[in-house]
Every structure is written in structure tokens, then in C-alpha cells.
Amino acid sequence: MKSKTKHLYTLIFLFSLSIIFFCNACNESGFAREIPKEVDLSKASLPEVIINQVSADKIVGNSVDLGCFIKSDGGARVIKSGICWDIQSNPTIEGGNLTTNGPIIGQIPGFISGLEYNAKYYARAYAINPKGISYSEVVSFTTEKKQEEKIFFDDFNRMTLGSIWKIYFGQFQIENNILRANSSGHLLYENEEAQIFSGDGHFFKLETDFQITLVSDYTFAGVIFNAKNANEFYVLRINGSGMLQFLATNDGGQNWPGIFVITNTGLVGKNTYHLQIISEIPGQFDVTIKRGEQVLFNEKMIDPEARFNGGYAGYYSLAEYSLYDNFSLLIK
After folding, report:
1. Are 268 and 215 contacting, i.e. CB atoms less than 8 angstroms apart?
2. What is the pLDDT of residues 193-211, one digit of tens each?
3. HSE-CB for 255 with a 13 A CA cutoff
4. How close are the terminal C-alpha atoms of the chain, in Å?
5. What is the architecture of the domain spanning 150-331?
6. CA torsion 96→101→103→107, rounded to 10°?
7. Do residues 97 and 126 make contact, with C-beta atoms less than 8 angstroms apart?
């Protein structure tokens, strides 16, 4: 009896050892995993690292997104990798400007920010395994110029429009230090430095005072923005009964293939309003209309196609009863 009991305990012990061995050979999900083998460093070599040439769309402001990856670990585990850069043509990790990643194989994270504006840099990827360090070839790139804010303002306190304002259709004139539309038409503020862009660190804020001198469904005052030329632009316009429209045209306002917003604001004519349009993303515009300090209208307006970016700002009139003053354009 004692012999049989001792034999049973022996079987239980051996079974327990097999369970422990099996668990040690499994990963966390319970599936068998390969037990690492020691690397024969005599057969290993340095890693192979590749970096792509830098295209312009990978540079935004003072940051860059580099494409680089470890093609081969050289037969030994990569223990550290990253990117190093410098204003000198042969950057190394000793220079101090570097990113650091742990053991990886494949793509190396390549985003670098906080660089100097308008500066030329040299960069290369690196990888380290037990055999040593290897570098990719060197690539160069130049960060963008810092976008400074510029302000353009016109209060029309003079006799004539001057050469910056170009009338493409209709009749406009300055009268009592206010710009008056004497017919349907549009004009653009064609200052080369005042082109308005959105996105990639650019934005614009367009402001103006306007008035429609009668209550009417058929008289519109409006602003033009992102005008690529005299025919292709956005218009935000409002009539004397308070109907607001956000539109896009390809033929100077003869037709409106883009109709994005039509809404009744209740802002009727014979009042002076202040309009503000802000855009940081192509095709998206934050529109605010005030009377004095009171906000009467505030809404985001979107062109899903973002068909126009860049270009000039200006004024739009349908019929002859609109007035404009204090044109202001802030760009970055």
C-alpha cells in the first residue's frame, strides 16, 4: 500500500513539472512561443538603415516628417534606433540632435519638430545592434520661412480708389469716405502681398463694415474671398431682407455651381453691420456678423470640395444700394 501511494505522488509531481514547462513555453495568450536562442555574433553584421529623400509636402513650418526604416537587423537584435540631424553635413548621434527608439525592426518614427525656421538641415537614420552602429545616407531639407502676420487696411478716406482696387464689373466710387456701389458688380483688392491662404500654418481674417440702404429681396451686399481671378471665387452676400448666402462661382457670378448656405438671418437693410470671416482650414470659414458689440450671427460655413485657396479678397454688389467701409485683412 505504501509503495502504491509513493508511486502516485511521483506521477503527480512529474505531471506538475510538465505543466510548469508548458506554461513557460507559452505567451500570455496561452499559445506556444519560440524560446529565444542566443545569437552567434560571429555571424552577425551591422544593421542596414534606409532614409528617403525629403519631398516638399513633408516639411511644414519648422517641422519635418522623414521616411526611414531598418531594412535588416544584421542577424542580431537592434537595441536602439532613430534619426540624428544637424546644420553640418555629417550628423552623428554624438552631435546631440537625435531621436531614440527601443528595439524595433521596420519603420523608424521620423517626425521632428521645433527646428529653426528657414534653415537647412542634414539628417540620417541610425540603428545599433551588438555589432555596433550603422547610418543611412544623408538627406537634406530646408524648413519654411516663419509666417509673420500682415495687416492690410483701407478706410476709404480719400477721393479715389487708387490702383490696388481693381473693378472688374460695375461701378464703384468713394463718396463721403465710404465705398459706394452704383450698380451690380465686383472689385478685388489686388495687393500681391495680400493673398489669402488657409492650412499648413496659414490663416486669414477678413473684416469690413457694410450697409444695404433699403429693405429689399433683390439688393445684395457681399464680400469676395479666395478669388483665383475675376471669375473664380467665393461670395458671402446678404440682401436687404436678411437672406444670407455662401456661394462659389466659376464665371464671375453669372452662375453659382457651389451653393453651400442659404439662411435667413433677420438682419434687414438700413443698418450698418460688421462682418468677420476667419479661415484656418481650406474650405472652412467661421462667419460672424455684429451690430456694435452685439453678435447677431455666428456660424461655420463649409465647402466640402475646398475648391478655392489663395487669391484675393474684394467686394460684391447686386444692385446699387450697398455701402462698404473699414476693409481689414489679417493674414499669416
Report:
1. yes
2. 999 999 877 899 999 999 9
3. 3
4. 94
5. Sandwich (2.60)
6. -110
7. no
Reading phi first (left if > 0) and then psi (alpha if -120 to 50, else beta), residue 292 is in: left
Averaged confidence pLDDT in the chain = 88
pLDDT in tens, 118-174: 999 999 999 999 999 999 999 999 998 887 889 999 999 999 999 999 999 999 999
Please report where in the chains the cell 510538465 appears, as a residue.
18
Element housing 181 (H / E): strand 178-181
| Cell of residue 276, nine digits | 468677420
Domain boundaries, the chain: 41-142, 150-331
- Element (DSSP H or E) covering residue 24: helix 2-24
Question: 307, 258 in Cβ contact below 8 A?
Answer: yes
Strand, helix or coil for residue 270: coil
Where do we find the cell 452676400?
237
Residue 321 amino acid letter: Y
Domain 41-142 falls in which CATH fold? Immunoglobulin-like (2.60.40)
- Cell 470671416 belongs to 277
Residue 161 in contact with residue 174, Cβ under 8 Å? yes
